[in-house]
From TrEMBL:
Gene3D superfamilies: Chorismate lyase-like, Winged helix-like DNA-binding domain superfamily/Winged helix DNA-binding domain. The lineage of its organism: Bacteria, Bacillati, Actinomycetota, Actinomycetes, Streptosporangiales. GO terms for molecular function: DNA binding; DNA-binding transcription factor activity. It comes from Streptomonospora alba. This is GntR family transcriptional regulator. Keywords: DNA-binding, Transcription, Transcription regulation. InterPro entries: Bact_HTH_transcr_reg, Chorismate_lyase_/UTRA_dom_sf, Tscrpt_reg_HTH_GntR, UTRA, WH-like_DNA-bd_sf, WH_DNA-bd_sf.
Length: 246
């Protein structure tokens, strides 16, 4: 396939699609090098500037990565997160990764006004405040901050969550089985503290998620999480609209 100079699609964008197809067709895999920008320019009869624009785009999309002085290589595919009431542990295992958790902060605190409102609690109700760094195959993936009412899980602060699933502890130790939830997702950037934990430059893009999980109508967890946007993509099944539904 060649670049179509009469197409309304910009040339750098046509080259993006051609390159991605070429990577699949030639069977290139993770960490394999792609041809140099000079070679690509010759092959597709494009200026060096256009090729550079395409490679920059593919790097920013996380499909390629550059190593200064060495070249440009095929990046690892992103991890696809399904929008379900699954735990990080379940989600990672289902995708063939080894899940991990580092306990960063564990405290019992009075719920702030916002937390109390979101969880349907009286202001200042004691909640477990849990901050964890989540890893997949040992690589930092997300920083998760959760609030859980103390009365639902007394003594939870005494259970180490390092390398353990919070949802498993809630189920096994407290008999809490989450049965519904809701989640909002928005684009965000890494603040200095999270950038350090995630091993990313400050200001890197993240997926900022806020989840409320319930059991028998009661809010069990309010969690705000920051996931690396360079490693994650979200996947959601789309069901048909029901007649009369909103
Ligand atoms: C997910 C949840 C998080 C929950 C965790 C429990 C999102 C954005 N967050 O990561 O709220 O605390 O699962 O995972 O989905 P665990 O049972 O493996 O500790």
């Amino acid at each position: 396939m060649a670049i179509d100079p009469t197409s309304p699609v910009p040339k750098y964008s046509q080259l993006r699609d051609l390159l991605l197809d070429w990577i699949v067709e030639t069977g290139l895999s993770v960490d394999d090098p792609i041809p140099s920008e000079r070679e690509l320019g010759q092959r597709y009869e494009l200026s060096r500037m256009t090729v550079r624009q395409t490679v920059d785009l593919l790097v920013s999309e996380g499909k390629l990565y550059r190593v200064p002085g060495k070249g440009t290589f095929v990046a690892r595919p992103k991890i696809e997160m399904s929008l379900a009431l699954a735990s990080f542990t379940e989600d990672m295992r289902a995708r063939g990764f080894r899940p991990g958790a580092q306990d960063l902060v564990r405290r019992v605190l009075p719920a702030s006004g916002g937390t109390a409102r979101a969880m349907g609690l009286e202001p200042e109700t004691p909640v477990h405040h849990i901050e964890r760094l989540r890893t997949a195959d040992g690589e930092p993936m997300a920083v998760e901050r959760s609030s859980i009412p103390l009365d639902l899980a007394p003594g939870l602060d005494g259970h180490s969550l390092a390398g353990r699933s919070l949802y498993e502890v809630l189920e096994q130790e407290y008999g809490i089985i989450l049965d519904s939830g809701e989640q909002t997702i928005e684009a965000g950037v890494c603040d200095p503290a999270d950038a350090k934990l995630l091993g990313l430059p400050q200001g890197s893009p993240v997926l900022s998620m806020r989840r409320r999980s319930f059991a028998n109508g009661r809010c069990v967890e309010l969690a705000t999480s920051r996931y690396r946007a360079d490693r994650y993509t979200l996947h959601s099944r789309l069901d048909p609209r029901r007649p009369g539904g909103s």
